[in-house]
Structures are given as structure tokens and as C-alpha cells.
Amino acid sequence: MYRCFDDLDDAAAILDRAKTVVWLNRSFHETFGVDNNAARGMEIGDLIARHLAPLFEERDSAERLIDALRNREEVAHEACRMRTSTGEVRRFSFSCRVISAEPCSGERLVRFQDVTGRKEERPRIRAESVFTAVGELVPYGIWICKPDGDVLYLSPSFLELVGRTIEECRHAGWLECIPVEDAAAACSDWRQCIDTECRWDRELRVRGVDGEHHTILSRGAPIRNGSDHIVLWAGINLDITARKQAERLTAVRAAQQAAIADLGQFALAGVEPPELMNAVVRAVAEHLGVEYAKVLRYLPEEDLFILEAAVGFDSVRIGTEKVNGGTDSQAGYTLLSHKPVIVEDFDAETRFQGPALLRNEGILSGISVIIQGDEAPYGVLGVHTRTLRRFTQDDINFVQAAANVLAQGIKRKTAEEALEESEEKFREIAQRSFDMIYTCYHDQGITYMSPAVTRILGYTPAELIGCKCRDYVTLVSLAAWEEGQKKMARGESVEGLEVEFRRKDGTTAFVELSESPIIEHGKVVGVQAVGRDITERKQNEQLNRQVLDQIGRNIEQFAVLGDHIRQPLQVILGMADLADDPKTSAVIHDQVERINEYIRQLDRGWVESREVRAFLRRHDQE
Asked: N or C end of the chain: which has fewer CB within 10 A?
């Protein structure tokens, strides 16, 4: 790579970014006797100090050059007197320049130019071999022009690109000679640059002999003498075709990503599927640079596709145009393949037949991808062009991304419709329910309350929206309510929770609640509950308990009454036995026996009453 510098008459050294010697040319060795192999890898200051310092006639010259090299990026025309390897004292102009051309970009060129006998110590214009050697390090090389713009030199690689000779360019002018787009404007700019003596900097789009267009960055600047007069124009022609293509592709991909993001936002906004489909086909056609795009919905029962959205197909009927499935169409083959399908030339396609929808338009190339549904493919998104085109993997990714957005939008809309239908059914059931049904969130309070609440608590549903259920629980039931809420916070359901609520009129009502937690992202955020009015049942239970208590008290009174009656009877029997009249005594005994029989019947009734009361208490507890 560096051997081209051997053609230079000047002693030259190439330094890397760390100012370390990577090459000495043949003239350097011949002039100063320093071998390339011995110098390679040395820092330039060390090279001068070790090998060149003894050759300087002035003592401070070596130190001055070392200091300049180490402290400045470039050095221009430092004059010095040195002895050559033959012992002859010569005058040299020392310079250091940063190389900007590839592949040596960033490296430095150090030159010792022999200027002995010259009136002006300035670099000479070197032979054409120098231009060839240095210029070909840059893609399409360098150019040299006279002060008036006439061509002196153009690199061979550039001449080969445009299919011209240096003589042709000298005769007609290099910009006038080459096949450049907008040649008149380019020539006008070049002429203005020469007239105003400003730098030349322009991108030229040149058609090469290969038929391809190449983007050339042409830059140049005037070279002046000591009197500040322009003696030459020099510049480079740098091939930036790959860079421009990369910039264009980067811009295209960025625009495509932005389009996908916009479509995603559009889908999240909840638009109807037809509107989303139309947006997708328009965006895909625009950002992929094709004339046609379409959405086909698959009907598995008929193995047909229905056209639901399209751009470019002016004569087709949306919603009625049909395309056969299977191998009769690209869309059908796409479903059979379970992957994207690319067609570069429909005329040469053998995997499937082209449907009339595409043949009638003269379409040659295209891409088709699957639009996924919940359980089966929804259909196919296709893009097509009437020119032969080789689509890339990035093109496929863009179309598939658009199809995925469309699929998610359709799924979302279907889910929303199903949810709305489910909510409507739930609302209809809740509206007709005899029980109180409500939904309550921790951060919003009650969000829904069924009409039954008016019959149970006296409030209208609107009066309770946004309120907290806890605010209507009486103190008697507050502890049971809080315990139920703790279970709900753990994600557990609560069944049969009896809570006393305050009615609007100040009275109370007992409600039996069955509650289920509302869980979002693994966190309990609210509750859904059904409340049944059990006020009448609670009142009956309380009345039953009162009746049982009264029966118990009556039974106890019967037992005491029996004991109180038996004691006087015993006294009467004793008195009858002491009487002298047996007939009277017998009558008394007979009556006492009758009274005892009544008391025994009361005892049997008391026992039966106790058993009945025990049964009623057990039944009440159940």
C-alpha cells in the first residue's frame, strides 16, 4: 500500500496516528542513509534525534523540528540545512501533512524536499506519477486543473468509470465531458467557484459505463503561491454511492417504523376494522413504494378470499371481489405455506397461478403475508408492483409488521364487541334482578348499582355512584364487614355475609352479601357483590326466639303450679282420713284423684313442651 511513495523524489515517511513511523520510502534511505526496517516502529521525534540530528548544520534545527512535530498536527515548509549520506550539504524544506484519503486516512506524510538553489522554498509540482500514486488511494482519485479550470490531471479510475480519456476531458472540460446529471448547473457552479476563488464542494450523480448511477463527492481548493495568486486547482472525487444508498435506506426504514407506530396508535384508538384496513394498505403502498396493496379475508367454508380493502385496484369492488384459495392464488399459497411469500416475476412463477385480480393489472412482483386471527388466519395482506422488483427481508418485515397491527386491531375490536355484548347481557340481568347487584372499586367507590337497591335501602342507583359501601354499614355489623374485607384483600370470595345497612329513611335493613374480588395485574382493585334483602327473615327469626323464650317461661310456670297444687291435696287427703264419715272421706279421695290426674296430664304436657321447644330451637339454629 505504501510502495507507491517510492516513486517520490523527496525523502518521505508515513506516520500513524501516534506519530510512529510505519514506512520510509526509497529516497529517504538514499538521501539520509536511514533504512526502512530499522526506522519502522520508532516515534518520529526519536527517529530525528537518533538518526538525523547529526546531519543538521544548525544546532537547534533538529530540536525545532521535533518540537513542531510533537505539538502541531501539521508543519508547512520548515527550512533547514542538512548533510546527505554522500556528505553533501543541501537545503531542505520540511513539511508534515495529515492524509485525508482512504485507506490512509488519519496518517501523516513527512517530507524532506530538496530546495537547494531555488529562490523560493516551496513545494514543487511533482510529476504525474505522484498524482497517480497518491490519488488512487482515494476512490476515483484526484484532479488537477489550471487556474482557469482547464484539466491537467484526472485519476485513471475516474476516467475508467466515465469511459473518457484525459485528452477528451482537456479538450471539452472535465465537467462538460463526463455524463453527469444536471450538467448545466454543475458547470455553472464550477465556473462561479473559479471566478470567486472559493472552495469547490458538490455532489455529482454520474452515469458510469456499467449503466449504473454513482454519487461522487467532488471537492477542491485553489493552491496559491507566495504572492497569493492561484497557480492550480486541486481536489478529490470520492465515491459516496454506498453511503448515499445507506442514508436513503435508513430514512426509508425510519419512515416505515414511524408508519407502523402511527398505525398502532390508530388501532389502539378503537377505529372500525374497515377504516384501519384502509389506513394499512395506504401506508404500506406509500412507504414500500408500490402501486398496489390489498387485504383479503379468508372464508374457509368456501376456500375463497373476499377483498376488504385495496389501493391501486380502481375497477374492483370492495366486499364482493373474490379470489380463489389454494394454489389458484398467491394469497391461497401463502396460507398453505404458513409464511410470507415473495414473487419476483409472476410470468415465471410455477408454485401457483396468478389470479385475475393481479393478471388484469399486469402485476409482476409482490409480497403476501398472513393476517393472524384468534384461532385461524383472518386473511392475507398483499403488496404488488407492475415492475420487476427484488424485495428484501426488511421489506417483508415491514409488511408483516403492518399485518400484525391490523390483526391486533381486528382482535381488539372483536374482543370489545364481545365484551360490550357480555356487559349488556349482565346489565339486563342485573336490571331485572330482585337482588341488589353492585361493583365497587377501591379508588372509585361504587361504579354500578342495580335498581333493586331502591326497594332494599331506599336510595336510587345514581345516589350511590362514587360512594363507599362501608359508609352505610351500621356499627353492629362493622366488625363482620371488616373481616370480610380482609378476606377479599387476600383474593378470597365471601359467601353469606350478613350485614346491617342504614336505609335512606333512617331504619335499617339486613342484607346477605356474596362477594367476589376484582383482580387486575395480580392485585385486588375492587369487589363485585350480590346482596339479598333478609330483613324479613331476620325479623321472623327474632320473633321465633321471643316465642320460644315465652314457651320456656310458661313451661317453668306449669311445673311450679303442679308442685303448688300437690301440696294442698296431700293436706286434704290427710284430713279426709281423720274424718269419722267414711262416705265423705271416699268422696274426697275420689275428687283428689281426679285433681292428681289433671296434674299428671300437665306434667306430660310439660315434658312434651320441652321436647317441642328443643326441636324448634334446633330448627331455628339451622
From this structure: C
CB 232 within 8 A of CB 152: yes
Q: Identify the residue whose cell numbers are 378503537.
A: 270
Query: Distance (Å, rounded) from C-alpha 283 to C-alpha 278?
Result: 9
Q: Nearest-CA neighbor of 278 among 239, 305, 319, 311?
A: 311
CB neighbour class for 229 (10 Å; exposed up to 12, middle 13-18, buried from 19): exposed
Beta bridge partners of 203: 217
Question: Nearest 5 degrees, angle CA 271-CA 272-CA 275?
Answer: 85
Q: Which three cell numbers stand for residue 311?
A: 389501493
Nearest residue to 610 (alpha-carbon basis) of 561, 554, 538: 554
Given a contact cutoff of 8 angstroms between Cβ atoms, the answer to whether 509 and 503 are in contact is yes
Q: What is the pTM of this model?
A: 0.48
> 47-84, pLDDT tens digit by residue?
888 888 888 888 788 888 888 787 766 777 778 888 99
Q: Which residues contact 26 (CB under 8 A, 6 or more apart)?
A: 6
Query: Residue 584 corresponds to which amino acid?
Result: T
Distance (Å, whole) CA 164 – CA 207: 12
- Does the pLDDT value for residue 378 go beyond 90? yes
CB 161 within 8 A of CB 206: yes
Quick one: 469 exposed, middle or buried, by C-beta within 10 A (0-12, 13-18, 19+)? buried
C-alpha cell at 547: 316465642
E strand or H helix that includes residue 112: strand 108-114
Region of 41 please: left (phi>0), alpha (psi -120 to 50) or beta.
left
